[in-house]
Amino acid sequence: MARGWESKSVEQQQEEATSEPSQKTKPLTPEQVGRSRRLATLELSRKRILHQLEAATHPRHRQMLKAALSDLDAQIAGVDSA
User: Fold this and answer.
1) Which of 73, 78, 27 is closest to 50 using CA atoms?
2) Does residue 81 sit within a domain?
3) Residue-wise DSSP of the chain
4) pLDDT tens for residues 70-82?
5) How many CB atoms lie within 10 A of CB 52?
6) Treating both helix axes as pointing N-terminal to C-terminal, what angle do 30-55 and 59-81 enclose, rounded to 10 degrees?
7) In this predicted model, what pLDDT tens digit does every residue of 51-68 receive, in sequence order?
8) Is residue 19 part of a domain?
């Protein structure tokens, strides 16, 4: 008997969890979605460059990666300010 009551409670919690966020949050505009995706892409690229920079040993390669990193930082700042 307790088991049946418990499963109903879990089912009710799941329904509430799926219904509440849609009521509380406003849908994003296409521009906001695009900005969010662009920012996520830039941040992933930045992480990849940082990882490569840690492993790089040749000075010219490190210089190129640092330049790429500063360019990505500028792009990220541009997306954040827009």
Assistant:
1) 73
2) yes
3) -HHHHHHHHHHHHHHHHHHHHHHHSPPPPHHHHHHHHHHHHHHHHHHHHHHHHHH--SHHHHHHHHHHHHHHHHHHHHHHH-
4) 999 999 999 888 7
5) 15
6) 160
7) 999 999 999 999 999 999
8) no
CB atoms under 10 Å from CB of 42, counted, come to 19
- Does residue 61 belong to any structural domain of this protein? yes
Contact status, residue 62 vs residue 56, Cβ threshold 8 Å? yes
DSSP 19-30: HHHHHHSPPPPH
Sign of CA dihedral 23, 25, 26, 31: negative
Q: Which domain holds residue 59?
A: 33-82
Domain count of the fold of the chain: 1
